[in-house]
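User: I'm curious whether this sequence folds into something compact or stays loose and floppy. Could you predict its structure so I can see for myself?
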Amino acid sequence: MRVFVLLLLFPTFFAFAKNQLKIYKKNHQRYVLLTEFLANYPSVKIQHEKFSLVYEIHYGNHLVRLEEGKKFFYKDGRIINTKVAPVLTSQGLWIPVSMLEEIFSELRLQLSYRIQKKKIEIQKTKPRPFSPLRFIVFDAGHGGKDPGARGMFGAKEHKITLATTLYVRRYIQRKFPSLKTFLTRRGNYFVSLERRAEIANRLSKKYGEGIFISFHCNATLSRRSHGFEIYYLAQNPSNEAARQVKIRENKFFDGPWYAKKLESILINAEIQAQSKVLARSILSGMKKTLARKISSRGIRKADFAVLRGSLMPAVLIEMGYISHPEEAIYLQSQDFKRRLAKGVEFALRKYLQSLPK
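Assistant: Here's the prediction. I'll summarize afterward.
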């Protein structure tokens, strides 16, 4: 029930051997010893004065400042909130696993990772070569035997996502004639999450750099929940609500064998960083065009099967709640489609400006 936006990148992470970071547990939280991570990555520098609680992590032109006991860190002066604070132990500074995952992408480290129960598997990657944006994949969530959510007044997610996707694609084709656009489905039929990822990956091999946007609607038992959300791929969900959304969205993915296949895929930190840039661009665009129509619930993160399988930067946008009486009606209107399409246009222009020239 969400809109995903994904950027397609080439999987270059098989060129290096894997390292493993031990996960430590304390009070039901998971941590990594900072010095153990730095031992494997000499290009990442740390500055810390004795008796100070502040640690500075440098990588290239990027700087992260964090403090023991604080549930946030600074990245180049911007605050990034987290759920758990670093802990100072006799071994040194323990970094929460969820915070370390954020730091990987915020610093744009050249690595891929996979978080497991007792360890984090990390693999160094080659620098990502710049390639201009060539195409967009528009993905209408659900369809066929997977109808998605049902909302107020007979609202059906699979119908809303398809109608919205077709409208947005036509609009973007007019505004960006040099970009190729593709769909994962054109009608009410089932497309597996694996197949959606295969479509994106095949296009990536043929055309180069691309982005993937998947449209969904949210729903809950409460009629009071409302607003849109934008998600990017991460193994640690933002909160319990994000975890529940992930479970619902992954409901129809393709059995235990595909689950194991997905679990073996490492998340590329540079791609994840681009996903964040894209998510922020879309958030800005939708807030601009949907002001006073649908409120923003901000940017969140979760481990969605379609995003993990696509091997690309990705964001997921929840367009609104069809369990909310007013939003269920508005999400089916032409005014919503026009405003969303303009928001995506604004986001793409902002995103393109952020790319290296």
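Summary: The chain is about 35% helix and 30% strand. Confidence is low (pLDDT under 50) at residues 2-15.
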